[in-house]
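For reproducibility, we list the full input for the dTDP-4-keto-6-deoxyglucose complex.
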Amino acid sequence: MHNTHMLEFSKNSDEYGNLVPIEGRRNIPFDIKRVYYIYGVDQKQRRGFHSHNDLHQALICVSGSVKILVKNPNEEEIIELNDPSKALYIGPKVWREMYDFSEGSVLLVLASEYYTEDDYIRDYDEYLADAIEYYKNI
Ligand code: T46
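The corresponding predicted structure, in tokenized form, follows.
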């Protein structure tokens, strides 16, 4: 799907456990300016419901599992994240919703820019109008 794909990281695994290094522009396709994590989400709760104009992000479920719905005017996918050595890359102009958070799950997000509300499109009709134009030209 456009502007959305899985990333798989190399693990350093031994009898002591696993370690996964992530380095901006090395094993993810952008420099990391911001890190945040989402946890303590009730299983019935759904989050997201927005798209970004310019932001690049990598979503990693470092504990438990969560489902991510990603869509654009032409395509839609549901991806279950449940492996801390994999990330879902989401670029600009992709609508996302996160749901089915398992108990104790932690969703870690690496972002290419500092937080600014100006980059969000939170209204679905506004997203569609903008995205239909954007996806016409690619
Ligand atoms: C995204 C998905 C995967 C901040 O103050 N700083 C931050 O860096 C972020 C990410 C959020 N906030 C504030 C803004 C809201 O008042 O935290 C509150 C909750 O944010 P929001 O409702 O946007 O959270 P989600 O879970 O719907 O979306 C978040 C990210 O905002 C978004 O960029 O792609 O996770």
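The longest strand covers residues 57-63. The longest helix spans residues 124-136. Both points were considered when choosing residues for closer inspection.
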